[in-house]
Design brief:
four-stranded antiparallel β-sheet; 8 helices; globular; 348 residues; alpha+beta; 31% helix
Length: 348
């Protein structure tokens, strides 16, 4: 069988990096769909990595249960990638990229997962690619279906039709409006952590709370539980929940050695989410403000250990949030005014 862990860098593989589209770009495209009232359809490529063609010379043992009795020691020379090979995702990406270029698409310079096709009459089709998942956007439904059909003929795919879900996000599109949420996933994790019938909190963290480092020995069980909580919260925050951004980033700094207080405060975020579980990102076209708007703020010398300030910002398009960030500034600001200017620069 394929044993990727036994591969040697420089002999069995050289590169393994495979780009994916970032969530900011996905949300930006949802905003454009609302503004321009575009069609949106998708597909899912089956057994994705098996289409990648290998450049390296790799052999594998015969699979268990399929060993040739007459030649039990015979090995197989792989021509295409298999799941488990370190370069499997890269070979699939190279196959995908080559095919998209032959179909007339051009890759966006700012994001490798965005491909744009421009027809002679000026109509365009935008393809968003995340490994095996793909969304096609555009005004001309016939042109979109033509490009989509080319993929269906070239690979074995599942036609997902009008997009209802993408990367764990539920999507509801109407005329000049796109709604994006993770309500189903949020309900699941509230059940997993037994937080369905809890007292609701109005804020992600208690007002004025500042986490303190844990100096006691690491408790492996508590650490594992804490990391599971943060992982679930990150999955929400990175996609559709900017309202818990600061709280999750702050608590994730205690991942190495969380105290019981850290765990309690992380669970406190669930209390907030229980009361806001129907919140969603809404992108509206029509008569709403169509320009890109950015908002920022800073907290001077917020980190007591390093005296670094905190920058927070988000950007709106089609009245919906497309990107958000909360992070410590790279250098120490000597005044609140300097911290504000640094935050403004980062936002721009």
């Amino acid at each position: 069988m394929v044993k990727g862990f036994s591969q040697i860098e420089g002999i069995d593989y050289k590169e393994i990096f495979s780009p994916v589209i970032c969530y900011e770009t996905i949300r930006l495209m949802f905003a454009l769909v609302a503004l321009k009232n575009m069609y949106m359809t998708g597909l899912d490529v089956k057994t994705t990595f098996l289409y990648g063609k290998l450049k390296e010379e790799i052999y594998m043992k015969q699979p268990e249960g399929f060993v040739m009795k007459s030649q039990p020691n015979k090995v197989m020379h792989l021509k295409c990638a298999l799941y488990g090979l370190k370069q499997a995702s890269l070979t699939w990406w190279q196959e995908l990229e080559e095919f998209m270029l032959t179909q007339g698409f051009k890759q966006a310079s700012s994001n490798a997962g965005v491909f744009v096709y421009r027809h002679n009459d000026g109509k365009i089709v935008i393809a968003l690619v995340y490994v095996d998942d793909r969304i096609f956007l555009g005004h001309d439904l016939k042109l979109i279906d033509r490009k989509k059909h080319a993929c269906l003929e070239h690979w074995e795919c599942c036609d997902t039709g009008n997009i209802k879900e993408f990367l764990g996000m539920q999507i509801n599109k109407t005329a000049h409006c796109v709604e994006v949420n993770q309500i189903n996933y949020l309900k699941q994790i509230l059940q997993w952590f037994d937080m369905t019938n809890i007292k609701v909190s109005k804020t992600p963290l208690p007002s004025g709370y500042i986490p303190q480092p844990n100096t006691a020995a690491v408790d492996p069980k508590r650490q594992q539980c804490f990391q599971q909580v943060i992982r679930s919260l990150l999955y929400l925050m990175l996609r559709t929940q900017p309202n818990i951004l600061f709280a999750v980033i702050k608590m994730s700094q205690s991942m190495a050695n969380p105290s019981q207080e850290h765990l309690d405060k992380a669970m406190h975020i669930f209390q907030y989410l229980a009361g806001t579980q129907n919140y969603q990102l809404v992108y509206k076209g029509g008569q709403t403000p169509k320009s890109l708007m950015g908002f920022m703020d800073s907290n001077w010398a917020a980190d007591l250990a390093t005296c670094q300030s905190t920058t927070g910002y988000f950007a709106l398009l089609a009245s919906g949030i497309v990107c958000w960030q909360s992070q410590l500034q790279k250098t120490v600001a000597l005044s609140s005014t300097e911290a504000e200017y640094m935050a403004l620069s980062d936002t721009c």
